[in-house]
Amino acid sequence: MRIPEIALTLEEKLVEFDAWLTPQLVEIKSSGRFRDELSLIAHVIESLAPRLNNFGSIEDCAIHPLATSVIEQALTLAHSAPEDSWRAEKDTSLFICGFFNLLFSVTGATDNNLKNHFMIKLLQDEAITGFPERVFMTKKGVRTVTDFVVRPLGQTIKCVDLATKLGRGLVSHADSESRKIALSKGMDLRGAALQLTYEYISLIMVDRSDFRQFWAVCRSYMRCLEISPEAARALIAPSIIFKIRGSVSASAGHVPETILRDKLQMLGLEPDVDYNLTDVIIGDQEVTEGGKNKTKTRAYDFTLPYKTEGWSPKIFIQSQFYAGDSGSVSHKVVDQTVATRPFTRSKHKDARFVEFLDGAGYFASLRGDLIHMLRMEDTHSVIQVRSLWVRLRRELQSIGFITPIEIEHAALRTDDGNIEEVKSILTDEGYSLLEIERGITYSIGQNILSVFGGCLQLNPDRIALARRLFIIDTIAIIGRHLITAEDMRRSITIPGYGPSYGSDSPSLAKSVEKSFKYGPLNIAEFTSDLEWLTEEKVISQSH
Q: Were both Cys, which of 127, 355, 390, 506 would link to 496 (CB 3.0–4.6 Å)?
């Protein structure tokens, strides 16, 4: 349904922003990275325990028995899948990488730092600086090892790359034919892997206190394991959280874009046609910085519509989510926005600029950046994760771009989905007849709608979503600004219209029932829809 527009003051926009703010999108302990890392470290400790006297004393964890135990356990994995070398390599490399990550966790060392130091250490210790790699030949569709060549490790090498090389070498050593070829060339694959493992451990574990920390953690883990696996994993969880928090937070930066794409697809839009899947480059802009001429590439996270037939991009969206203090990055974004918008307007005169901003950072340390973006006269809207359904759809409606959900809503306001009635409703809402026909044709082609006897029928898989957004739209249409605490207690609120905007439940139910004509309105479904919207945090109900 057509969502009403509203003019808000800066203060009203700020209060609304805070009310519907999503502090963070990714909880480290609920991330896949955390679960995988926790399982891997637990597996490494439990696998090494029998080989190291269950970590009975710190002497059991000295560098020589530690390196030997790691290689012997890796060889066991290398032998585990003789007919599937790819799986054996994967399991072996993953175990070695997990062991190195365990060392990082207990010592506080980082792969990013040590990757530059390893080659220096190898040269200073006069150790090997390369590792044997297989040379393959394919004959009659069969891939066989024909030779081994020592390839240098390189000036820098990451933990995962070193683990991969060692894993491959040990899998070759586990294969008798490959081992014979290597030995005939004077190459001891196990010995080379053991030497590099020894050197890498000594790079990370620099003194006795590091070995004591390793022993203390692993010994305590095994004691906790006697209680339960959960207790053992709880012991190592904090160090893993500390280790991966940076990478998890960095990856969370793209989560809002994924959320937005998911919402656009739920509206019925076609990926890579109606909306883009990667950043859209507008062009290269010549700028002067520090007295020098430079070329800056201008791009947007989203342009809508993207490549839809008969349309050119009109809505330009930048996405920035900051759960913490990322001031230097954010200030740069503000500066780029000021420079980019005039350049964009030179290519798209009717461009509408929308900012997708959210996160606790914009409540505190980056407040000034938020205010700056809201104050810019050509900022048409600032959307958040929880206000997408209202604010983004309102932007699409403002340019006259019809989405399947709008057609579905029009059908829901008819008795049987009569096409002419649907067109009449949409025409009254300001859509052109040409755009309405495009939208209906597209929706039928995508199996979002079907036609029977001159009437549109909704896809059963989409009716629930259509009903839920129908409720949001109804609140937008009949709602009002809530002033008293009693009003707030009795009402359901939505974002997009400033602070505390909504409707009381009886009025909402009555209005939805009056407008919803496409079959009887089921009270149980209506209640379930409200629960879903509340769980998604796109409406708020006071209790």
A: 390
Cα–Cα distance between 356 and 338 in angstroms, integer? 16
Residue 248 pLDDT grade (very low, low, confident, very high; cuts 50, 70, 90) = low
Q: Taking the complete model, does pTM exceed 0.70, yes or no?
A: no
How far is Cα of residue 463 from the mean position of the Cα atoms in its chain?
A: 28
pLDDT tens-digit readout, 194-247: 999 999 999 999 899 999 999 999 999 999 999 999 999 999 998 888 877 666
Q: What pLDDT, on the 0 to 100 scale, is given for residue 486?
A: 83
> Both tokens of residue 318?
């930048």
Q: How far apart are CA 156 and CA 117, in angstroms?
A: 7
Report the distance separating Cα 107 and Cα 205, nearest Å.
Answer: 7
The two three-digit tokens of residue 53, written as one number: 């006297």
Quickly tell me which residue has 């003051």 as its tokens: 9
Mean per-residue pLDDT, 267-283 = 94
* Beta-bridge mates of residue 294: 287
Cα→Cα distances 437→214, 397, 490, Å: 68, 16, 41
- The amino acid sitting at 368 is G
**DSSP β-bridge partners for residue 541:** 492
The total number of residues shown for the chain amounts to 543
Torsion of CA 524, 529, 531, 533, to 10 degrees: -170
Give the Cα separation of 461 and 13 in Å (integer). 35
Which residues make Cβ contacts (< 8 Å) with residue 265, sequence separation at least 6? 271
221-227: long-range contacts at Cβ-Cβ below 8 A with a sequence spacing of 24 or more?
Answer: 221/42, 221/45, 222/45, 222/49, 222/54, 222/55, 225/46
- 110 within 8 A of 104, measured Cβ to Cβ: yes
Beta-strand ranges (E) seen in 184-264 are none
* Confidence at residue 332, expressed as pLDDT on a 0 to 100 scale: 58
pLDDT beyond 80 at 27 = no
